[in-house]
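Hi P.,

Sorry for the delay on this. The queue was packed all week, but I finally got your sequence through. Input first:
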Amino acid sequence: MGWPIAHSLSPVLQNAAIKEAGLDYVYISLPVPPEKLKEAVAGLKAMNFAGWNVTIPHKQAIMAELDEVAEDARIIGAVNTVVNREGHLTGYNTDHIGFMQPLTAEGFEPEGKEVTLLGAGGAARAVIWGLLHAKVRRITLGVRNPQKAEKLAKEFSAYGDIPVLHWED
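Then the structure:
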């Protein structure tokens, strides 16, 4: 679910994975303009969709349409996956897992480490949460826009030490 979404390769990739796993599901694009989000969610719920992914511009707005938002998604401030269990819609954010899993699979042990993250854009929220959840000691944000990044660092300050540096300094 997103807007615009016609360019997305997700249906091709996801349907190949679904077929390989032998599941009886299909993954389709759901082009939903922002002003139709509420109706779209109600329709998917009424049609008993098992779940769906959420992308821009709906990742924040969809939270108000759900029955429950998982703690990780609430902390990150965005939902990218909705699961429908008998009409009860729960929003999740799996981006932090998708970031951390390959690192730990390659032997990276984040606990107690200092990390530098370049940039504080949309994906940074999930990356920061993944690193904090994995108990890094400090995350230094190297950014072009320190004022924007300071706001982000403050939002996560209850969970860890996040200094901000202008990368030209």
